Amino acid sequence: MSVSLKPMTTTAFVAVVENVDLSQPVSSSTVAELRSAINRHSILVFRGQTIDNDQHVAFSRNFGALEIHTVKQYLLPDYPEIIALANRGENGTTPIDNGGAYWHSDISYKIKPPMGSLLYSLEVPPDGGDTLYADMYAAYDALDENMKRKLEGLRAIHGYAARFEKMGEGGKRPQLSAEQLAEVPEVNHPIVRTNPETGRKALYINEGFTLGIEGMPMDEGRALLDTLNAHATEPRFIYAHHWRVGDLVFWDNRATMHCATAYDTQYARTMHRTTIQGDTPI
Ligand code: SIN
């Protein structure tokens, strides 16, 4: 039986997958269909799932080896492939409330940033806490020809340390250790990234981790990045995912960026994320 995909009418870069039960092993033909779907839609939404950690990891591994996050205090003790985005913490993990509340593409600061992420919701607040996603293919396509020419060959500098420090304001987060810092040196990636499987071009910058542009004075590079971030986050490129318990959202980090939104933290919000390793952006 083939996968039932329902593209959203308002935001075609998002599709709902209706007939796949993630608690069961999926066939190789289903995996192939989902791989093809993520290249077409960038975001796949699976509603009403009930999966445990083993099932989450097993499903994710169908799409590649899994990334282990540099900051170990967020990882589930027996499942280092799962980062707990949990405002109460979970089994001793450091609590995160609104940890990803800035536009970013996961772990873009690595030489080989993750291809995709799979976020599963276990507890959600009654209101708010949505995740916003920006369609970076559409954002690139909508640039005028002058800007497209200007961006050709430009590379953005990505880094994690500055962002981590910013999130530590108020003493909420510990410093990165020397060992952790060594794992995340600054890297640079093309500002226009091509999906090697489809040839589609996407803007590959984000508010969270891009610091400047290689070979450009810092303030000039920052200003161009700000312009591109403002363009890519115009409402016409955005999908807001309102979470229900049991949703799993699989997104393509090569083609989207995302941003968590606020909610009343008297309510629990517990999410589990796996992250699929990727290739060097071209
Ligand atoms: C993330 O940034 O990966 C998670 C976003 C969220 O918690 O809504």
Characterize the structure shown.
With 282 residues, this protein is α+β, with helices and mostly antiparallel strands. The protein has one domain (4-276): Double-stranded beta-helix (4-Layer Sandwich). It contains 7 helices and 16 strands. The chain has an 8-stranded mixed beta sheet with strand order 1-2-3-14-6-16-5-4, covered by helices on one side. It has a 3-stranded antiparallel beta sheet with strand order 13-7-15. The mean pLDDT is 94. Bound molecules: succinic acid. Succinic acid (SIN) is lined by residues 85, 100, 106, 117, 119, 131, 258, 260, 271, 273. The site of succinic acid has 10 residues, from strand 6, strand 15 and strand 16.
Layout of helices and strands:
Elements: E1 5-7, E2 14-17, H1 28-41, E3 43-46, H2 53-61, E4 75-76, E5 79-86, E6 116-123, E7 131-135, H3 136-141, H4 145-151, E8 155-158, H5 161-167, H6 178-183, E9 187-190, E10 192-194, E11 201-203, E12 210-213, H7 218-232, E13 238-241, E14 248-252, E15 256-260, E16 270-276
Parallel strand pairs: 2-3
Antiparallel strand pairs: 1-2, 3-14, 4-5, 5-16, 6-14, 6-16, 7-13, 7-15, 8-9, 8-12, 10-11
The structure holds succinic acid.
The site of succinic acid has 10 residues, from strand 6, strand 15 and strand 16.
Q: Briefly, what is this?
A:
The chain is built from seven helices and 16 strands.
Within CATH, the superfamily carries the name Clavaminate synthase-like
Query: What is the count of structural domains?
Result: 1
Strand order of the largest sheet: 1-2-3-14-6-16-5-4
Q: Count helical runs.
A: 7
Strand portion:
25-35%
Please report the first level of CATH classification, the CATH class. Answer: Alpha Beta
Distance between the termini: 35 Å
- Tell me the total number of β-strands: 16
